Amino acid sequence: MAEHEERLMEKIADKIHGDSSSSSDSDDDKPSHVNPLKSKVYRLFGREKPIHQVLGAGKPADIFLWRNKRISGGVLAGATALWVFFELLEYHLITLVCHSLIVSLSILFLWSNASNFINQSPPNIPEIVLSEKCVLEVASALRTEINRALDVVRDIASGKDLKPFLSVIGGLWIVSVVGNWFNFLTLFYIIFLLLHTVPVFYEKYEDKVDSFSEKAMAEIKKQYAVLDKKVLSKIPIGPLKEKRN
After folding, report:
1. Cα within 13 Å of Cα(141), Cβ side
2. Predicted TM-score (pTM) of this structure
3. Residue 39 pLDDT level (bands cut at 50, 70, 90)
């Protein structure tokens, strides 16, 4: 009887130790809680959305990111052809439009009259009408963007913050320097070419570019802090007082 009770106690003790060891093992297998701030990855310009959504997540984004290589290549080839016409061949816009209309109208006119003799159907020319709703929506969107731009200009000119003022002045100066190197058409084509190459390159090498930009931004902030301490902080700046009616 005593031996039976002793064996029973040993089995209970073994079971208790087994449960405790299994629970400790399961606790060790659980992943530790990671601080989301530490695990947050730095992204260029502080963006939180994918590059496709930043570009609008529509057809323009698909074209810039080469989702359909045939369409993107066609758009880029068309822009290149226009640049060659206007810049290298020195074709004028009005001349090109007039010649294109002359050729198109002549083909349609001859086709419409010749269809009766060759027993073919005349060309189906669609009727294009701009609706009042479409025009009002475009005008409303344009008005909103213009008002937003005017508000930004007013905030910068009011002297509230020196950093955006210096950024805008620096950006305008860079644009003025680049404008001396190229005319408007060539500059527009270069920007269009960059939109077709930089986003897809960034999407492909996103992690490497973000890592490099993080180091560059840290160095820029360091140099700006030195400049602010020695120069900018000594400049007296105050917001303009708004007039009260």
Report:
1. 5
2. 0.57
3. very low
